[in-house]
Amino acid sequence: MMRGEQPASPEPPAPAMPFLQRLGWQAFFAQQTSIDELAETPPVRVTEVHRSGLRVLGDGIDMSVPPRSDATVGDWLLLDRTLPSASRLLERKSLIKRRAAGRESAVQLIAANLDTAFVVTSCNADFNLARLERYIALAFEAGVTPVIVITKADLCDDIADYVARASAISEEVAVVTLNARSDEPRAKLAPWCKPGQTVAFLGSSGVGKSTLTNALSGREAAATQAIREDDAKGRHTTSHRQIHLLPDGCAVLDTPGVRELQLAEAETGVAEVFSDLDELAAQCRFNDCRHEGEPGCAVRAAVDSGEVDAGRLARWQKLLAEDRHNTATLAERRSKDKAFGKMVKQAKKRKFRDR
Ligand SMILES: Nc1nc2c(ncn2[C@@H]2O[C@H](COP(=O)(O)OP(=O)(O)OP(=O)(O)O)[C@@H](O)[C@H]2O)c(=O)[nH]1
Ligand SMILES: [Zn+2]
């Protein structure tokens, strides 16, 4: 027997996946760096974002680095141990962002480097086509594969009807139905929850996102609430565990606050969800046709002939209007910021000159 070789056992354990791969390290990221650079600055993934810093995990690394506005949960950094703030942010595979809530019209980075977004809805009052379309447009725009998950199938006797409506949104989006409180989630979501993949559950409150996360991790439903931990001073602090590494090797990115979802700069994503209408619009007589009764409107003609559902057209127009509005607000803010920056620069120059 060679040195280091283990005697054969009847059931050899499955080879453990390296920790970095379990964290979601993929060829896409490795290609951006070199062996030498990796040795010097090991890759770490941002698993939590706090005002005071970013929690990063890597191979044998679990630490906090200074906060930075250009990084979000799911990002990969090449950790500079001597000067953590100088760590290099790797190019992203995907990025979910939204217009920040409230009056400030800034973009908020929500999650980076997701592979799959499970857009979760239950089959009751929560089921809302417009909301599903918005989430799917957002996923498409971000470069993430969306999958519609309809929960509470056990409480519903016309599930086929919901599936039909959800399936009509886009041919490119798979639809899964399940009872999140049973053992179904693992098997039904397995095609997307492969080792090394990063997934997230998006959707309104109460649709079953936490129940699904727990089901995948094999935890009890009792752990649905945020985990309470004692800090150094013995106080209870609520910690949102934002990346859960599941036993199967997949990572679940658990991001709170994706409820007040507004689209911005998501024109491509919207066009992808409504590709049928987008193609029709290209045939309208006027380039800038709003499909509001203009002559030669191919979209209206399709609605009149029954080829396109009038409700779907209305939802498309609403989503486009929302996206245009938010995009314009963002552009305006950026130019204001730029103007302000210029002013500060000139003031500084003047000060220097006048001295
Ligand atoms: N019967 C049944 N109940 C479910 C199912 N999915 C979730 N529930 C229940 O619905 C309630 C809400 O589920 P959660 O998993 O907490 O929902 P959530 O989306 O995480 O909600 P927030 O944390 O508020 O965003 C819980 O009482 C779950 O047990 C399901 O498929 N069937
Ligand atoms: Zn038209």
TrEMBL record:
HAMAP family: GTPase_RsgA (MF_01820). Residues 103-261 form the CP-type G domain. It comes from the Bacteria. This is Small ribosomal subunit biogenesis GTPase RsgA. One of its GO terms (cellular component) is cytoplasm. The keyword Cell division does not apply. The gene is rsgA. Its main location: cytoplasm. Belongs to the TRAFAC class YlqF/YawG GTPase family. RsgA subfamily. Its EC number is 3.6.1.-.
